[in-house]
Design a protein that fits this description.
By secondary structure, this protein is of the alpha/beta class. The chain is built from 12 helices and 14 strands. The protein has 2 domains: 174 residues, P-loop containing nucleotide triphosphate hydrolases (Rossmann fold, 3-Layer(aba) Sandwich); 102 residues, no CATH class. 37% of the residues are buried. It binds adenosine-5'-triphosphate. Keywords: ATP-binding, Nucleotide-binding, Transport.
Length: 368
């Protein structure tokens, strides 16, 4: 889904404009308090997103990858303002939206749409899919009566559904058809940005390809920008221009698809790539899991949050290939991704490196 076309950008000589820009965004969830917390006044939080910078430019597709629980969905929901951020700044088309509420927030919701993994969760089972797709047109006061239904019917045809399916109920449609309805519902308000949360993970490989091709065509046709959340690196490689790799609420590496897939710098990115299942004859081989467990989102490790599982972290330091963080913004940039190396000796000593036995398990599972 590459786009080098800058003709829609007012500053056609420069890079496409920044549509969405998140800076140091955090989303922490309070943990249910137990008796101890109530008595001693200590409350813990889940640091689902913990200081993330992210930019999506007009016309591009940015992917967010990472294991389950790394914070991808929470990040997507926070930057699209389904969630209120705990901290940080979010601008959309130059306007600060991090504290928007009421009418201002509704206006942003019209321009930023979220497509859920399971379209059933966003479709009312008691309403026809046509009614569900038409609803945002009423909510946002965009169209009514015949004009509303014409618009919905046109969109159904655009995504390969028949007009006859307007009257179907969600349970009467296949998974692929429901995902197409989900796309219609997202596109009906003519958004600028669509956030896809695992858009094809519930579909088989053939259907995945059809939906991804459709998403690609719609992007060009409607001049859309996409943020695509997926644990599936095959999907991300296929459709994204740039990729951010998330681990334990942070982005550990980012770059173009070529940077990430051909020259990954961070050991976590390398481990993720080694765990990609291969597709042969339309069938996927089983996914290998990374060694070790993701850390607690309540008390994440200090320094590089990956270091307790990192095959390159041995005896308090990285074993050679020092990773660098690649900047999305194109300054080839160079903050050390392994923040652990920036820590003082005392801080490192306070943290127990993985035992020899743990290292062997990690190395075995990463194929080193
Ligand atoms: N509403 C919530 N309340 C408390 N904790 C939450 C909430 N939503 C998410 N979390 C926690 O935040 C962390 C990140 O979750 P999130 O769903 O964003 O990760 P993810 O990478 O999208 O994972 P998955 O692919 O499994 O959806 C997890 O530890 C999760 O349990």
């Amino acid at each position: 889904m590459s786009t080098t076309d800058t003709t829609t950008d007012p500053d056609a000589d420069g890079p496409p404009r920044e549509l969405l820009k998140a800076t140091n965004v955090k989303k922490h969830f309070p943990l249910a308090e137990g008796l101890f917390d109530r008595l001693f006044g200590e409350s813990q939080v889940v640091r689902a997103v913990d200081g993330v910078d992210l930019t999506v430019r007009a016309g591009e597709t940015v992917g967010i990858v990472g294991e389950s629980g790394s914070g991808k969905s929470t990040l997507g929901r926070t930057v699209s303002r389904l969630y209120e951020p705990t901290d940080g700044s979010i601008t959309f088309d130059g306007e600060h939206i991090e504290t928007h509420s009421g009418r201002e927030l509704r206006s942003i919701r019209r321009r930023v749409q979220y497509v859920f993994q399971d379209p059933m969760s966003s479709l009312n089972p008691r309403k026809t899919v046509g009614e569900s797709v038409a609803r945002p047109l009423t909510v946002h006061d965009i169209a009514d009566g015949e004009a509303k239904w014409d618009r919905v019917a046109d969109l159904f045809e655009e995504v390969g559904l028949g007009r006859s399916q307007l009257d179907a109920y969600p349970h009467e449609l296949s998974g692929g058809q429901r995902q197409r309805v989900g796309l219609c519902r997202a596109l009906v308000t003519e958004p600028d940005l669509v956030v896809f949360d695992e858009p094809v993970s519930a579909l088989d490989v053939t259907l995945q390809a059809q939906i991804l091709n459709l998403i690609d065509r719609l992007q060009r046709e409607f001049e859309l920008s996409y943020l695509l959340i997926s644990h599936d690196l095959n999907v991300v490689r296929q459709v994204c221009d740039r990729v951010a790799v998330m681990y334990a609420g942070e982005i550990v590496e980012r770059g173009t698809v070529a940077d990430i897939f051909e020259n990954p710098k961070h050991p976590y990115t390398r481990a993720l790539l080694e765990a990609i299942p291969q597709v042969e004859g339309g069938q996927r081989s089983g996914r290998q899991s990374l060694g070790g467990e993701p850390p607690s989102a309540t008390t994440p490790p200090s320094g590089c949050r990956f270091h307790p599982r990192c095959p390159e972290f041995i005896d308090g330091s990285c074993s050679g290939r020092t990773p660098t963080l690649q900047s999305v913004e194109g300054d080839t940039g160079h903050e050390a991704a392994c923040h652990w190396l920036d820590r003082s000796e005392a801080e490192r000593a306070a943290h127990t490196p993985p035992s020899r036995a743990e290292r062997e398990v990690i190395q075995e599972s990463s194929g080193d």
